[in-house]
Specification:
By secondary structure, this protein is an alpha+beta fold. It folds into two domains: 2-169, no CATH class; 183-377, no CATH class. The protein contains eleven helices and 14 strands. The protein has helices spanning 10-38, 44-55, 68-93, 207-210, 212-223, 230-264, 275-282, 284-289, 291-305, 350-365, 373-377, and strands spanning 2-3, 114-117, 122-126, 129-132, 135-138, 148-156, 162-169, 183-188, 194-196, 201-202, 267-270, 308-311, 338-340, 347-349. Helix 1 (10-38) packs across helix 3, helix 5 runs antiparallel to helix 6 (230-264) and helix 6 (230-264) packs across helix 9.
Length: 380
């Protein structure tokens, strides 16, 4: 990701992004009209051919300011959305899931975010210059571009700033990381972000909670502005700037924690979270902690460093099982932070006990050597 320098010529990119939003809505309208008339799904090839025919009409000639490959990519994204919707309907009928995924819908053009070019419509001119169509743009080249570029995506954030994303094919190099011989299981929590089976604890900054007062103030200022006024636009940008700062602080914490874990442990064992259920119970705090985003970053860092991330089964009773005698206590509630096993009499801290069970179950399910309580306590 590289940020484009601010320039008057960037207005052409904004126009192309808006054009992509119009074409997206036109494709959705075609899909719905075709289904109402024929009770069938419009295939990707059919809709791409229809859009190409429509572009030749004088009324829609302005669509050509967006590259043909970008238009094809918009149709392909909509097709993927419909396929996810169809698979979800089949899975719900079969009882495989309760999650409901809706079909792609209309979007506000001003909220359009990006367009993607593949082989044609762009050219990297060297240094920090990029040509899109017939216009040359400059970007802040903070690092070298590695690998063969396959796609170029222009994205617009809530502040109206533009970024260029290069999707590259990179030949992975064997990790040069020295193996540490350490492995551990980790339990996610709301008070302590990660509790390790070796006794380590990681705490999250919770940037949204810390910035909540500023966000509330920015929302109040926005509510007092007249719709359509320049002051309202300024207030919107101020609010977007505050939210962007929150997201960047959270992401920086995730990257730092992932690198630290992958440098310290060869194998990292985690529980599989039910994020929808957690959000239903604790809502905003779960979103502020960003468990799913951290797991994605952890997998990315582990793949480049040679560490292994293993997830245990979602329904494994890591919290209710005694890590000493392996008996399950079904009477534990969310308020029980410390509890004593009625079978063996050992007193457990809730998060530490869960981390020990995750580590032991992860070692068994991944084909590793069984982990005893003593070894787990030593971080082995």
């Amino acid at each position: 990701m590289y940020k484009l320098y601010t320039a008057k010529r960037n207005s052409r990119l904004h126009q192309q992004i808006n054009t992509g939003g119009v074409i997206h809505n036109a494709c959705i309208a075609l899909h719905r009209r075709y289904y109402r008339r024929y009770k069938k799904h419009l295939s990707l090839l059919q809709i791409q051919a229809h859009i190409a025919k429509r572009k030749r009409l004088p009324k829609y000639a302005w669509w050509s300011q967006l590259g043909s490959q970008a238009i094809q990519d918009i149709a392909a994204r909509i097709e993927k959305g419909y396929q996810r919707f169809f698979h979800n309907v089949r899975d719900r009928k079969a009882g495989l899931t309760t999650q409901r995924i809706g079909p792609p819908g209309f979007r506000k053009v001003r909220k359009a975010k990006s367009f993607t070019l593949k082989q044609a419509g762009w050219k990297l001119l060297g240094a920090n210059r990029l040509r899109i169509g017939q216009t040359m743009y400059k970007f802040a080249k903070s690092r070298e571009i590695e690998g063969a570029i396959k796609t170029v995506t222009i994205k617009r954030d809530a502040l109206g700033e533009l970024y260029v994303y290069f999707s590259c094919l990179v030949v992975p190099e064997p990790p040069s990381r020295a193996m540490t011989g350490n492995s551990a299981g980790f339990d996610f929590g709301l008070t302590t972000y990660l509790t390790g089976s070796d006794g380590s604890e990681r705490h999250a900054p919770q940037p949204f909670r810390r910035t909540l007062r500023h966000i509330a103030q920015a929302n109040r200022q926005l509510a007092h502005k007249v719709k359509g006024s320049r002051n309202r636009t300024k207030a919107l940008r101020h609010l977007a700037r505050v939210h962007r700062r929150v997201a960047r602080v959270r992401q920086a914490f995730h990257w730092e924690l992932a690198r630290d874990l992958c440098a310290q442990y060869d194998t990292i064992r985690l529980e599989t979270l039910n994020l929808q259920g957690m959000k239903a119970l604790w809502g905003r705090k779960v979103s502020d902690l960003g468990f799913a985003g951290f797991v994605d970053i952890l997998h990315h860092v582990a793949g480049s460093t040679g560490a292994v991330v293993h997830h245990i089964d979602r329904w494994f009773p890591s919290t209710k099982m005694c890590s000493a005698c392996h008996q399950v206590n079904h009477h534990i509630t969310l308020r029980d932070r410390v509890w004593t096993c009625t079978f063996c009499g050992v007193t457990h801290d809730r998060e530490r006990n869960a981390a020990l069970n995750i580590n032991e179950e992860g070692a068994s399910s991944s084909g590793g050597h069984p982990v005893s309580l003593a070894a787990a306590s030593l971080g082995g």
